[in-house]
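Tutorial handout. Part one gives the primary structure; part two gives the three-dimensional structure as tokens.
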Amino acid sequence: MQILRDYHHKHIPDGMVLALGNFDGVHRGHQAVLSEAQRVAEQQEKPWGVLTFWPHPREFFAPQQKPWCLQPLAARLRTLKQYAVPHVSLLRFHANMAAQSAQDFVDEVLVKQWRASHVVTGQNFMFGTKRQGDAEFLRQRLQHHGVGYSAVPAVIEGSQPCSSTRLRFALAEGHVNDISAICSRDWQVQGRVFQGHQRGRLLGFPTANIHLQPHFAWHHGVYAVRARLLGQSQWLPAVASYGVRPQFGAGACWLEVHVLDMPENTNYYHHTMQVELVEFLRPEMTFQHVDALIEQMHTDVVVARQSLQRNLGK
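Part two.
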């Protein structure tokens, strides 16, 4: 996958079909936009790719707030690669762009700089200063330049559209099954394993500790997961805790992964580990004494094994 930033737009082929949007989470609605862009490109025998914004406009306007994006940039790019996107162009969202009118964005960015032959967005796409541009405006302005346009309808899962807002809610509430349904894949993160306080090893449950890049936080608690080191093909059954470890005094938030049936003396330190959420098991808790915590951890392992067996091949 070729990744180009806004100042490299001259290297993008003329007449590209552009899938335009934030693509935060790359859920099924985004996937529909990607599929339509690929379909149009194949029909017209044109190259195609994604044009996305970084940082997320909301993070630009309110940088002091907690992380809003579902995925850090590297994770978003990895996910787009999974869907065989051949080109990704990163359009830096800055003060000048925030003040740019919808018409100027079409004329100067999509037509003059990126030289698009066709643009594809979701039907609720909004752009330009004060979000003055919508899908109909985009259609009319692109038509003025002889550029095609497709607005892709929302993808409905259950009775609601698949959206980044719905995905944020599911992550915040620990609704892992909803996350998988909205994305048509299990939610995946990765990070570098570091040496923590080694409490898990002392309790009989050694863990790989991972600081995740700034992202929209999940519900704190214990999850059945699959894990593997970057570059390996086999996913291993595991149980993971995401949170601040209140039993020992709340600290920084990180992910602790206990790989089931892990060979003795396995050393994950300084390796990158990938983790997939399978099921939320219970919220983060405190116990009256450590023995009660150890007993609960044994229970968590049993329940995680059952969950992973039920979801085998999912």
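Part three, for discussion. The chain has two domains: 2-155, 186-310. The chain is about 30% helix and 25% strand.
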